[in-house]
Amino acid sequence: MALNDTLVAFSDGNPIDVLRSYPVLDKPATRALVERLFPGADIEEIGDELLIDALNPPADVVCVGCFPGLELICSWGLTPRRPSELDPVVFTATDRRNVYLHAAHSDAGWCSYGVWRDGSRIRSRSISTDPTITEDEGTHLPFERPGEENDPGEQSCASMQALFGFACDDHNRLDDVDPELIPVVAYRITTP
């Protein structure tokens, strides 16, 4: 799996539990969520995708999956390089208690992840070869192992596995979520 991704999840519980159940997509809800995230923009539905193919969308495309208890958004336009700079519109887009962010770009040597509960940031981490985008705030998460904390590639894979249940390498565990079975809808966004 590629190491370039942008993924924001809104969940009442653990997103992995929902993704493991291979939930049914609520397609009308995807459009409503995009309209809340991009008010005033022209929104054009351009087709269905699988999550595996939606993780690294073009700059003007957002991919959305809405399921019982979980919404997923893949959009570089919403993903900051530091989790603490996540646009406030993201937090008001749904009523879910938890927000999870994961973004990485292997060519740039950068990985970012964050967790919010009930509107409070629990963890915010950005690792990069560029020190101006580095961030390390909040309580360390269980997957953050000493010795790997400054390696964007290692942290990208470990955080993707821990937050969303699937790996970014060829190693698949029996309980992994399969992003090739999770449907999403792609929309082209044009802002005035």
Keyphrases for this structure?
single chain; 192 residues; alpha+beta
Summarize the helix and strand pattern as letters: EHHEHEEHEEEEHE
- State Rg: 15 Å
Output mean pLDDT: 88
Helix content: 10-25%
As laid out across the biggest beta sheet, the strand order is: 2-9-3-4-1-5-6-7-8
Distance between the termini: 35 Å
Class by SSE composition:
alpha+beta
Task: Please render the helix and strand layout as text.
Layout: E1 5-11, H1 15-20, H2 27-37, E2 42-50, H3 51-54, E3 61-67, E4 70-74, H4 88-91, E5 98-105, E6 110-117, E7 120-128, E8 135-138, H5 152-164, E9 183-190
Antiparallel strand pairs: 1-4, 1-5, 2-9, 3-4, 3-9, 5-6, 6-7, 7-8
Describe this entry's structure for a reader.
The structure is a single chain. The protein is of the alpha+beta class and 192 residues long. Helices cover 20% and strands 34% of the residues. The protein has 5 helices and 9 strands, in the order βααβαββαββββαβ. Strand 7 and strand 8 form a beta hairpin. The chain starts with a strand and ends with a strand. The model has no long low-confidence stretch (mean pLDDT 88).
